[in-house]
Amino acid sequence: MGSEGGIASVERALLLMEALLDGPVGATALAARLGVSKATAFRVARTLQSMGYVVQQEDSRYALGPRCLMLAAWAFGHIDIRRELRWAEEEIHERTGETALLAVLAGRDSVCIDSIPSKHSVVSVATVGEVWPAHTSSSGLAFLADDPNLLEMYLSEPLQDATEHTVTDPARLREMVGHFRSTGYAVNRGYWRDGVVAVGAVVHDAAGKAVAALSAMMPEFRLQEAGEQELGELVTDVAERASSRLGYRGRKPANPAG
């Protein structure tokens, strides 16, 4: 087989495995998805089956095999989130001119692991290593909105205030987080520092886990100028594309809990 045929075969094999991400598929349906004959789809599937990347079930449909899990486990363990998502931070920074930051959840806190300073003369600074209680930051609130079970665990302990605007009432926080869940982004309206606001959205990995959050931070008056919804949609768009690059295949359905 020539080089072009070899490349085509590799492409078909990868497309076949992607077609199985949503569950078992029969040979006829696989052929339709790959745009090839049923015989070709069968040959590709059997080749992958012989290597452990595909298995055939009792009903003759094909499913992903154990070697895929092995590769996924290795990839998840070796992904450098800060390096992988730097482009997303840079895009938010370029499109808004504001401080862009990347945070992860550690226990009850959101931790800044990377940031790019604002281009403006009046700036809001996010320091690498800075820690914020989840209910006081856009990134932390985005994590809480993403997982209702996490929210309930978080609310099992008292909430401390940092400013007069910090939301510490559990019922009000549930309502607020529920709104964030519906919009896809969270807003910090001076909950940690007076006059400093931020808009954040989570990034999911291939398993659907929220592994990081991207945010744009700025003085309150500039959020009013930019428009909260417009900025929220921008950050959400970048976060969703970042999730896609990590293998996530779509937003999780809204969960009414919380």
TrEMBL record:
SMART domains, per the entry: HTH_ICLR (SM00346)
Domain HTH iclR-type: 7-66
Keyword Transcription regulation: yes
Cross-referenced PROSITE patterns: HTH_ICLR, ICLR_ED
Superkingdom, natural source: Bacteria
Ranges of residues in domain IclR-ED: 67-248
Keyword flag Transcription regulation: yes
UniProt keyword annotations, A-Z: DNA-binding, Transcription, Transcription regulation
SUPFAM superfamilies attached to this UniProt entry: GAF domain-like (SSF55781), Winged helix' DNA-binding domain (SSF46785)
Name of the protein this chain belongs to: Allantoin degradation transcriptional regulator AllR
